[in-house]
Amino acid sequence: MDFRKLWTSLGGKTKATKKQRKRSHRTLYRCKRAMNSTVFQLTAADRYAEAFAKNFTTVLFGIIVNSINGMFVFTFFKSSVFYNDPRYILYIHMVINDMLLVFFSVSLVVMAYAWPKVPLPFCVSLLIISSTAHKNTPLTLAGMAVERYIAICKPLHHHQICTVRRTYILISLIWGVGVIPGLADLILLSIVRPLSVFTTNVLCSTTNVYSTPYHEEQSKITHGLYTSVVWVILVFTYWQVLVVARRASSDKSSAKKAQSTILLHGAQLLLSMLSNITPIIDKIYGQLVPTLRSKITFFNYLLTNLLPRLLSPLIYGVRDKQFFKYLKGLLSCRLFNIKVESIKQ
């Protein structure tokens, strides 16, 4: 008997099978490794594409908002008739303030992707400016409501009280009051944390930098105080103007206009306050649809932080007949000049 053939038929095949199994396992392992690396590359590419799309959309939307608001600023400075009217001075201050808020807000969003680790002093400076601009909007609306109240309820004293000089003093006070919460956050940070923290690099966001319970309590107190004061002013001025509109036998139209203007300030205040409910919406919908949490947060940011900065100045500027007349005239003249120059060329 040929033992070689017998061994091959019995044991040889077994050894050959083991070798084949080893080779097949190695091949399968390599395939799996290649597949895993491919999946990782695709996931990284998808994440990069999503991050790029979000940043591009945010920057584009911010440019559109500031460009439209810039037209109102251009109209104000091109028309000297608005220079001596406190109402328009306060309005254009609100527009410029919202433009600053949009710029710094978009910058912080882009920095979270492009520059994750920022020196803390630089980050704190940006957060203080953003916080101040955020607080300035409702304070300016309150000032505009008070100006309308004086114009309707105390018309004989309006020119004496609401002067241009006092309007600029009020704007200075608005900035002084608006910066207090940001400075309070900085003081709390320097007290609670060691001073060496100012030499570190951090992810620049309010929730990351001001993460102590003291900051949370301070934020609740200041937000409640600012919101309450502004709403009390709006309700008081609206009620007084409403009383005057009912009692007045003449000039009821101006009283009704002032009444609707204060209501508009209330709507503007609600729009500016949408950013305060952003964390609540993120938390609710993030728990309901956890897989879409990042997308929900992104669209929530656009709708509650950027869009109100467009709607609030736009509604007021278009609604005001005098301001809209000058805006329309400037834009039509500019378009006409462009057409004439293109024809001459």
Describe the structure in your own words.
With 345 residues, the chain is mainly alpha-helical. Helix content is 85%, strand content 1%. It has twelve helices and two strands, in the order H-H-E-H-H-H-H-E-H-H-H-H-H-H. The chain has helices at 3-78, 86-114, 120-153, 158-161, 164-178, 180-192, 206-209, 213-247, 252-272, 278-288, 293-319, 321-344; strands spanning 118-119, 201-202. Strands 1-2 form a two-stranded antiparallel ribbon. Helix 3 (120-153) packs antiparallel against helix 6 (180-192). The protein is globular. The chain starts with a helix and ends with a helix. Mean pLDDT is 77; it is low at 1-16, 28-43 and 335-345.
Keywords, separated by commas or semicolons:
345 residues; mainly alpha; two-stranded antiparallel sheet; 12 helices; disordered N terminus; disordered C terminus
End-to-end C-alpha gap: 107 Å
Strand percentage lies at under 5%
Radius of gyration over C-alpha positions, nearest whole angstrom: 31 Å
Poorly predicted segments: 1-16, 28-43, 335-345
The ordered H/E elements are HHEHHHHEHHHHHH
Biggest β-sheet description: 2 strands, antiparallel
State the helix count.
12
**Within the largest sheet, what's the order of strands?**
1-2
Percent range for helical residues? over 70%
Output the structural class: mainly alpha
Globally, the shape reads globular
Task: List how many beta strands DSSP finds.
Answer: 2
Report mean pLDDT, rounded to a whole number.
77
